[in-house]
Structure formats: structure tokens, C-alpha cells
Predict the 3D structure of the following.
Amino acid sequence: MTAEIGQLALTLALALATVMAASGIAGSRVTAGISRRIASSAAMGMLVFIALAFGTLVYAAAVSDFSVLNIANNSSLAKPMLYKITGVWGNHEGSMLLWVLVLALYTAAIAFARRGSERLTSAALGVQGLLAIAFLLFILFTSNPFLRLDPPPFDGAGLNPLLQDLGLAIHPPTLYIGYVGLSASFAYAAAALITREVDAAWARAARPFMLAAWIALTIGITLGSWWAYYELGWGGFWFWDPVENASLMPWLVATALLHSALATERTGAFRTWTLLLAIAAFSLSLIGTFLVRSGVLTSVHAFANDPERGTFILIMLVLAIGGALALFAWRAPSLETGSAFEPVSRETALLVNNVLLVGAVATVFLGTLYPLFLDAFTGTKISVGPPFFALTFVPIFVALLIVLPFGPRLQWRKALFAEALRSLFPALGVAAVVAVVVCFVVKTHLVARLGLYKITAWVIAASILDIVRRPVKTAAGFAVALAHAGLGVTLMGVAGTTLWRAETLSLLAPGETVQVGPYTLTMGRVERADGPNYAAIRADIDVSDGGRTIATLTPAKRVYPTEQQETAETAIRTTGLSDLYVALGDERGKGRFVVRAYYNPLAPFIWFGGAIMAMGGFASLWGRIRARSARNAIDAVPAE
Amino acid sequence: MRHVLLGLFLLLCGSAQAAPAPGALSNPAMETRARALQKELRCVVCQGESIDESNAPIAADIRKLIRERIASGDSDKQIKDYLVSRYGDFVLMKPPLEPSTWLLWFGPAAVLLAGGGVGAIVVTRARKRARTI
């Protein structure tokens, strides 16, 4: 019965989404108050039904109900309960259901928070309703998780072992909270265009949702990178893989949006540009979904083989993005008023930030999609890998980092450059000292590359110290300092691992040693270490530093018989400043095993930095929520 | 920081006891070249992995082939050209610069230039407004 309840709940949610869309959008023209109330009720109802549908799928997975096709295909009896449940969103159908659940949550939040005028809220709910209709239709017609299987099999086909991991269990939901969170900014932007209320109010209304989405994307990308680091077994943290790029693009645009919206809110500058960014950020989320979910990424031909889902998403994409852009082109020109500021001002700094971020997005966009287009139109296959991004993305980002410390130091409308520069002198001093030290220690042919990376990373890190040291008076200033500091810390980690990493690949028998970085590894015994649904071998490897044994690492190699797949369980010993990373490979006769070992200086900083950036976001969000009541009082006074 | 510098120091000193990697070249300079080349070549059957990272048998074969060619005195370019003639441009992680990839290579710069141009106009107009008010 459960699957049928889920199916029914989804259908009812679709009906409510239709009510919400119709009422919400009509409300922008006629009686806004009533429409807003109808749309709000529909939003709450939709959340209840989608949550019910999601709950039934989780229940079916928990009790291993293999009469549900989706569970039979993606779960198995031997799987631990935790992964039975997290496996619900480890496959296409379940993850799309999670997607609409998050959409329903944001929609309910918009209805509940009632930021902005009745007309704006009503229209924003209407736009969310249209999105919900599209995604619910997609699920019901092409990706239904509640289809039955008769007769049910005795055991399921299992879950990709790479996905049987706690990091990956929380990574997709976090990323979805980010992707889908951008729908709220999109909805408010579209609502502003529909109602012509393109003043600071819409940006202020949408700001907490922008922040929530940005925080979630930051955490999601950080988790994904961490997962790839410890699970894939070759010590890298970012592979410029199309799936990773699909999450990086919305993050970059969301970052640009947060900065541009700041100017719109404070001085009314860039108001149409901010609207366009809000549309672009969610559009890139949709494109990311399309890329990941349609199979296009594996090969253009995979798309042609199973075109139904891909075509459906493509149509949704064209309607949502095209519709929003058409609305923008129609309404925006009449709404731009133009702002007044001096060339040296916070506004100009934010503009430079946006130009560079858009350039960075362009590299990722072209690098990800160009091979697909080239293959589709000319049949030529090319690969775009890390060397391409090192030549295009990295220089743009370096430029961004050089100008970054100046931004928060410039006043709105009119600022003094000399003053900002003077306050940055200590940071410049630290950066110079570090650059000299680094170049002196590593006097190799790497100097040019190293100088570039290190000086930039240190300019940021040092200037961040400066920001933190400065007496910060506002919550917003503190949030900015934290977020920028986090970026600096992440890039220090990136530079450290990229430039100073030591790696060895060796064949070791018990008792043999190998040196990696400051550590000596001694191979111990290798034994079987089977788990509930896998067979494994595990090695004890002693780590000594300067003749003293400091730890024993136990990297393992697992074979999952149900899924016929191998995974490397890496062993990582971190000091907080550096990682020792060991992965066990195949046996190559006579009890010798392939051992990959990496010494990754500063690697933990990559993820610390992500966490700090997210904390910056939280600080800003917290400041907003706390200041809300005060601001509401100001809003009560007619602004026009 | 001291840890990092220590690690760096040891790195420069080299490591005496290191057991040889499977199939590695005895000449360290040649081995370094081989590792660098491996990172620039794509595993043709995998999803976006270089042959340096891949566990696929064909990647192992190409790693072996690279070492044989390096040992027999081929330049990096000759090895790449050979692999491109066999597998096409697909095998290169860094796409070649030719008319069909101009948009890819120069697109980002074009976007930056356009953005800079529009930005300059916006700032000029904003300045004019600020001065007239």
C-alpha cells in the first residue's frame, strides 16, 4: 500500500502546486492579499504531501520492500540500515523526489516568512508553484519512484559501493538545499519583474534565501571535495569533473549575486544586473541538474539512447530560463534608473568582483559544455581537463584575490584609495616576507608558478588577519571578514598541497619501508577484514617520524560482491597542518602490495576554509534574522 | 609551518629507502617526465580520469608504453603525437589550439573584455551622475 500512498500524495501535491501557481500569479494583478493567503495555504499543503511521499519511499527502503522497483534496483538486504535510508537519494528517482521536497520546503519558507509586500510574496509563490508543477510532472511521468515490480525479487541489486559512505549520504541533500535554494531568489526576481517592484525591497526579501542557498552550496561543494579526497584514493581534492563543475557554476554566480545584491540593497545600484544574476544562478542549477541527470555527461550518445528524461528536463530548462529571460528583456529596460557613484567606491569594487566572477563562470561553463557541443555538432571529441582550467580559471581567480582585500575597505559612493591601501600595509608586508621566505627555501624552476600562487594566497590570508584584527562593529562586517578569511584559508590549502605534495607509489612486503615527506612508513601484516556486505583486506602500516613510531594506519581495499565493484578505503592521518594519506592497492605476487602514499601539506586547510566561509554566511544570516524586527518597523513607513 | 618546512627539506634531500614503484624507470629524471606526461593524458575508457589516476588496464598499458618510449629516447611531443594519432585529440587533457577550439580558449577572455567594457561604461555614467547631483 505504501507506494500507492506515495503516488497519491505526489498527485495531490501537483494539484496544490497548480492552485498555488494560478492564485499566486493572478494575485499580482488583482487582490494580492487573498491570493497570497490561498497560495500560502497551498504551499503548506504541498509541503505536507511531498513530505508524505518522501516518507513512504524512505519507509519502503527501510523495510526492504522489493516489490517497489526503485528499491529492488538500488537496495539490498545485506546493506546496513543507515545506507538503506541514505540510499533513497542515491539514485535518480529518489534524488528527484528529494529535489521537490527541498523546493516545497523553500516555498513554505517564503509563504511563512512573508518578506516583502503582499504582491511580491504572492507572485514569488506563484513562480515557485510553476517550478513545482514542472518537477512533479517530471517525476510522475519519467522518474516515478513508486512503480511496482511483480513478482518481487528475493534480494535487491544493491547500491554503488562508492555511495555507501556517510560523507556522500549528506553531500547530495546539502547540495540540493543549495541548488533549489536558488529557486527562491529566482522566484523573487521573477516576481519583482512581474509586479514591477524592482526596488531594494525584493533584494532585501530574497537575501536570506540567497544566503541559505550559498551556505548550503559552500558546504555541499566542500563535502563533495572531501569525499573525493578520501574515497577515490589518489589524494586529489578537485578534478574539474563535469559533475563538480555543475556545482561550482551556481556557487560562483550565487557569490556574484550576493555581492551585487548588496549594492542594490544599500544604494539601489545594479538593480537589473542583480535580477539577471538571480535568474542566471538558478538557471545554472537547472543546467547542472540536466547535465547530471540526463546522462549527457557520460556521452552525448547516452542521452540519445534514453532521451525521455533528458528531453523533458531540456524543455523545462528552455521554458524556465527562456521565460525568465524574456520577462527580463521585456520589463528590465524600463526599470533601470541608473545610479550615481565615483569610480573609487564600494560599488566599483563590487562591479570588478562581478566581472571577474562572470569571467570565471565562463571558463567553467565553456570547459564543461564545449566538448559536448563540439561532439554534437562536428563529431570531434576533445577532453578539457585540469591543464585547461589551470590556464584560464586560475589566472582570473588570482586577479580576484588580488583585488579582494580592497573591497570591504572602500566606502559606498565615494572612497579614498590611498586610505584603503594604507590600512592594507601590514598585510602587504606579511605577504612580501612570506614570498621571500618561500622563494628562498624552494630555489627551483618552480619559482614563477610558486611565487604567483603563494604571494596571492598570502596576500589574502594576511589581509584577512588584518580584517579580523580591525575593530569590527557590525555583524555584517564580521560575516564578510569570516567569509573572505575562509576563502583565503581554502586557497592556502590548495596552494600548499599543489606545490609541496610528496607522493610515492611502491611495492611493499611486510617489514619493508618507504619514505614520504617527513614520515617513514613500515609495512606490517595484511589481513582479511570483511564487513556485512563486502570482502576486504587491510594492511597495518606503521608511521614513524624521526625514528619514533607515532601511529599505525590501516588502509583497506574492499570488494563488494553484489555490485561487483572495488573501493579503496584510504587511511589519513592529519595533524591539522598536513595530511599523511595512504591507499592500499593490488597484490603483485610474493605478498607484495602496491601502496600509494601522499604527504599533503596544508591539505586540511581546504576544508577548514570551506567551513569558515559557510560560518561567514551563517553570521550574515543570523545578523539578518536578528535585525529583521527592527527593519520591519522601518518598512512600515511608506518608502515611495 | 615548521612541519611544512621540515617536510620540504626532506623532500629536497630525497628518500633513500624508497622501494621502486611498480614498473618505474630507474632514471629519476625520466620517471619524473613520465609522471608529468601521465597527468596530461586522459584515460580513454574512463570518466574524466587521467592515466595517472586510472586503474583501468588500458591506462596501465599506456603508462608502460610511455616509459618504453621515454627509455628509447622519444621526446614528450613525439609520444603525445603518437597517442593522438591513435586515439585522437580526446586523449589530451589540454585541448589543442585550433580553429574549432578558439571559442573555448578565447571565450573566457572575450567575456572578461566585454564585461570590462560594459563595466567601464557603467562606471563612467555613474560618475557623471554623481558629479551632476
Q: What stands out?
A: Residues 1-164 of chain A form one domain. Chain A touches chain B through 73 residues (CB under 8 Å). The first strand of chain A starts at residue 502 and ends at 508. Chain A has 19 helices and ten strands.
